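Model: You mentioned two targets. I'll fold them one after the other.
Researcher: Yes, keep them separate.
Model: Target one:
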Amino acid sequence: MKNFGVAWLTTNRNCNNNCSWCYARNQLSSKCKMDIEMAKMAVDKLKMRGVRKIVLIGGEPTIYPNFIELVKYIHVKDIKVVVASNGRIFKNIEFAQKAKEAGIDSVDISIKATDKKTYIDNTCADGFQEMIDGYHNLKKVGIKVTASYVIVNDSTEEFDKLIYFLEKENFTSISLQFVKPCLSLEEKDSIMSVDKMGKFVTYIYNRMKQTNINYGIEVSFPICMIEEEIWDKLVIENRISNCCHVPKGIGINFDENFKIIPCNHFAEFPFSEIPVDFNKENSIEEIMESEVVKEFRNIARSYPTVKCQTCDKWNICGGGCFTRWLTEDPNVYIK
């Protein structure tokens, strides 16, 4: 029986934002949502398979009608509950308090913009102040809250605006991520080249040293793109991490119809068109041990270039998010 450390449950695909870069962009208007009784059965099965943490994702999971009920059920099973959110619903402190009482362990709020106008431009929603209020309400009721921000280009001016926003609004920590490819979207203009990502890490490190903000960087590109001295400092300071669970098979991700998908960036490409039947003893194993999944993981574990085979950082790096190499030639960068 395969055990997983973490699972992602896509409670629903609809959202109160409409971000153009969203991995679920083509599904945001979908009314599909997890059946609550099946979701509970999924939690039971995941508990049996050693899952210690469940991440609720969307769309926007806080607008899932059975959100509090599901959080309570996961918490009672002694599984850590984490929520990936835009934070807007937590503007209602009563809702934040209910979430606390239900057993949420932590919430990660994705920062869509650093000012009201840009937020509206990016999300087609007037939710900038709601995001800020939601962040502080979560802290008030005692829920651990973090923030995340996706870097889409190497604009130092834009990054400095982020720092100004974090300090002004008293956001004390931030997870920095670089934009990753999403196979369901045709737009490729926002994908920054991996060499620019590596160079920009140096700017991030030097800029963040001037602040009191706690930060981490999620690496989704080959770490040989990062200046070695900067890499060593980030490792020593414990500020850098690898992003992908797929090659090691340590996580499992369900869409809103209980189909298993590799990760959110394959939101429209499940391993099987047949959803998991939680009434069957080995329904999860039948999919996760299928030839399709094995072949997918072998591709995910493969070396982007021959040079990677002898790199002493391979176990940490893994070549970054392998979906990059579906549209780019790694030999251009890894030499």
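Model: Target two:
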Amino acid sequence: MDIRMIGIDYERFSLEEREIFSCTKQKIINILKQIQSYHICSGCIIIATCNRTELYFSGFEENETGYESFCQALWDTGQYNESDRLHWRQLGQRVVCRDNREAVSHLLEVTAGMRSRVFGEDQIITQVKCALELAREARTTDGVLERLFQMAVTAGKRVRTKVHLTGVKTSVVEQMLLRGKQWIEERHADWGKKAFESIPVLVIGNGEIGRLAAARLMEQGADVTMTVRHYKTREVTIPVGCKIIDYRDRYAFVNRMAMVVSATTSPHYTLLWEEGLNEQGEQTIFCDGKERILFDMAVPRDISPQFGQLSHLTLYNIDDLGGMSVDENHNEAVREAMHILKEYEEEYEAWLQFRDYIPAIQEIETYCAEDIFKRVEKSLKRIVNDEMARKELEQVIETAAKKVVGNMMYDMKNQLRMDEWENYMEMIQRIMRAREN
């Protein structure tokens, strides 16, 4: 096995530190292409989510860690300065590196939601699929990583189907709803209605998370308004019943809201503290003293942290919405999930080992085809007089012989344990060499 993974995740890095490595889809493609241009690996894929940035390499040079190449690729984008470079170097001490089986096992657990901050969440499956698609677009995937990521997605789906990892829905949006409901019940019990019923909510961003948040809030009875960019000139998907405003008008609407949810991929703040300051340096956004709850569900962050320091505002970021632990009730489910993942890990390792034997199988196919041809060559010349027809028939015989032998070898592999298969291959190769001598 020749796989390496380097990772920057929520377990070792704060939200502020993870923001440094956050990437848009186009930036990921550019970084992948840049890494490939260094000729240090045969393939590379980047998983970039709110909780982690992970790079997977195949055919990696032993004298490279991977992190230095990633930092060099970031630097080569031309968007950073020397202080950023120094910061990367300091953070590099905490970057985790996993090789071969450990890297494969980690990816399988990540894709199954077992390494997520919100344990068991299923959004990660889509994110892993997206990582593979971006690598394909950048032309940086190879057979080893292609197979690994496809198998990880399949394993993740099987775990989600077969195993009940948690007792509640676990996406970050569901955690947002849970925190919002608790806040309303604690602070506004006097409203005398269901938690979200009719409360005005502004959702900034109409990407996947924004749309899901808006839809779930409307299911709870909230009065939801969503921002869109240039919605008059391009088609966007908006949940049915949701009001819309132009993104540029968001500051004019936030003071009317009891709740604000921001979930964009923008590298800039959607609610910037300085934007609300008047000439006297007083904050004009949320200045009426009413209690509000804000959810910043983006990395890098969308809402200036200073808003969270105001006594009448409650601000949650992406890290605040995680942390669901595995309790005793989940232990059996976790064991079942790990058993499933172990099966896929062993299947992948067997595939890799078999893949290493492909040149030997092709050699056996050629040997058998040549042996068969020698046995029928005289008969062919006697029976078929036309030289062109004879050569065409010879090609058909060679192709058929290789195919029959190859199929038998593949079937044999499926019937034997790996150690038996290795002994079998060694025996055939010894016989071939003995006959050739």
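Researcher: Noted. Anything on target two?
Model: The first helix runs from residue 15 to 20.
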